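Please, why this fold?
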Amino acid sequence: MDLHGGNIYRLKREGKGELLDYSSNINPLGVPEEFKKKVIENFELLEKYPDPDYIELRENIGRYNGVDLKNIVVGNGATEILFLYMKSLKPKKTFLIAPSFAEYRRALESIDCEIIYHILDEKRDFKLDIDKFVESIPQCDLVIICNPNNPTGNFLKLEEIKKINDQLKKRGIKLFIDEAFIEFIREWENFTAVNLKDSNIFVMRALTKFFAVPGVRLGYGITYDSEILEKSQKYKEPWSINSFADLAGKTMLWDREYIEKSENWIEEEKEWFYNETLKIKGIKSYKTNSNFILIKLIDKTSVEVREKMIQRGILVRDASNFIGLDKHFIRLAIKDRENNKIVLEALSEVVR
């Protein structure tokens, strides 16, 4: 089974043809037009090495987040940032919420770190009980939180993050927060953990999801921990961000028309999508704060539904390989209204 969604290439090789990809959570508005223009206008960038220190890129990311460039480390997608952080911190034991993004486990295993899981309660719709969570944290070096969480779509408020972090600081435990999907929340600037300006926290972001550029590979981390920043620069490979990714970070963050259009789309569509899933018999859906939604299949298995959806030209994410979920869960992206109707109609037929 694929560790992530979006492996349409393998399915094409297997003769499945063109598929409507609802396994990958990418903004359906597509690549911002302003960035496309900039690529054409600056095609000669391919003839030059990018700035190895990425000063202008980090300045732009800093202004976008209200922090100084010295507090930013950039990488070849969020995945490089994740692995770079683990290599820099070298935790021996980590407390990890599940279900959540699979790469956390891979990054921790790459440094031989022991992992202890906090399994979210399905009876609570996978919402984190803050008090019980804090009480359950063992003595460890690191806690990882995905916010909004993938695949559940739940989101912790800033005061909840602060409450967790305050307890962790007393015990000498670091907090890593993945905010890859936070921009799908309106006025996210008010809710990001970056606002806490705390050296105990490391925040990871990516341009992949919101700006619809998974092929560009640009991620970044924000922290006030000078030791982690120093080690990250020490371990980081040179020129891991190509010239067009560098250009993307200098361009797309200021495309207000695209950003506002995306915010309006997701606010309306995630509510509509969730309400429509409530009309489908044979499933249970979980209210989401992001551009994807977790679905439980009552009488079908994820493998069965995935294959039947592929037969209808649609790829969904089999979520059974998330720790904390079983063979009855799938995840669907939320895209444009026209395609969403097609997917929901097909799903209602498949789960009958």
Remarks:
- The first strand starts at residue 20 and ends at 22.
- The mean pLDDT is 95.
- The chain is about 35% helix and 15% strand.
